[in-house]
Amino acid sequence: MPISLLEQKKKQKFLLPILGVIILITLIVILRGFFKKPSIVPSSSISIGQKINIDWDTLKSPILETLESFDVIPPLSGSYGRKNPFLPY
Question: pTM of the predicted model, to two decimals?
């Protein structure tokens, strides 16, 4: 019994500094991210007013014209399921 108690104290002495280092690293990462100044993007890299051209002729290709649409699925008729699904059978 005393041997396991000594082993447990040795483990605690070893694990406590590791836990402290992990908490310290986590706090440093969080605080650096929180207090970091936002970087300023130069206005030359922002492009405003680009015109987007859509080629609608692609939708008229013969491959797309051969596609068929799905049939309309009618809604379920009658009752389905149980009134209370949580009751045992």
Answer: 0.37
